[in-house]
Write a structure and sequence with these properties.
It comes from Streptomyces tibetensis. It is built from 1 helix and 7 strands. With 132 residues, the protein is mainly β. It has a single domain, classed as Jelly Rolls (Sandwich), CATH 2.60.120.10.
């Protein structure tokens, strides 16, 4: 293992850090659904969420037109629906969702928790009205 004093970097360089544990976060509030956690660090280039779908719940078919998404199942099981048919998912399933692909998610009897990661969307720009 490398001694931290041997690692290169400036004093103001951002530092890696542990943000949490997906297993603990997913188990913390068993009845909670939706986004249980969001990456909110300032200056980030990524967005990430921990999402829980309730038992037998689903997320309807949809597509993300601009961003590829990486999905990692952390607990429970379910089915990823796609134009190629249904795909079972379980803890450890790592799924690439290319931009433009249509997909749905259905949780199994115990629910389903997963992490999504994608490039951060640029913030909205407020623009003035065009001059006539």
């Amino acid at each position: 293992m490398t001694d931290p004093e041997e690692l290169p970097g400036e004093a103001d360089t951002p530092l890696p850090r542990i943000l949490g544990n997906t297993g603990s976060l997913a188990a913390a509030e068993p009845e909670a659904t939706g986004a249980l956690w969001r990456l909110a660090e300032p200056g980030r280039q990524l967005d990430a969420n921990l999402v829980r779908v309730p038992p037998r719940g689903s997320i309807d078919a949809h597509a993300e037109p601009d961003l590829d998404v990486l999905l990692l199942v952390v607990s429970g099981d379910g089915t990823l629906g796609s134009a190629a048919g249904p795909h079972p998912v379980e803890p450890g399933s790592l799924v690439w969702l290319p931009h433009g692909s249509v997909r749905s998610v259905t949780a199994g009897v115990g629910g389903l928790s997963y992490v999504t990661v994608h490039r951060r969307r640029p913030g909205m720009q407020i623009q003035g009205r065009p001059r006539a």
